[in-house]
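We store amino acids, tokens; thus:
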Amino acid sequence: MSEESQHEAKAALNAFDAEERRIAHRFSCNFQTTGHILGPRGGNSWVATITNISATGIGLIHRCRVKPGTVLVIKLQGNSQKLSRPLPVRVMHATPQENDDWLLGCAFVRKISEEDLQSLL
């Protein structure tokens, strides 16, 4: 395989990988959750607003910046009360908002099932 062909194949694979990371449909929402930081420093519980959710991640509006890489434990409760359990999420990014809150983009440590996702919406 020529060097040019290898480069084209690698570029196509990278484009495919980028699309694959975004295959989980994200749903807009607006409900509250409670959570805490995992570990010995995470004893204080707080409230955040869930702005969007997918099978692989969640967007939270929180009053404080949380360092990317931090693992949070949040409680998700569905409207049907069928799903109510703490779930670990890893903060992937923290973006400041106009009102001094922070948008935390988080990835579920373990992907949630489509059935659990639907019970939350």
Q: What stands out?
A: Helices lie at 3-20, 114-120. Strands lie at 27-37, 46-53, 57-62, 71-77, 84-96, 102-108. Residues 3-20 form the longest helix (18 residues).
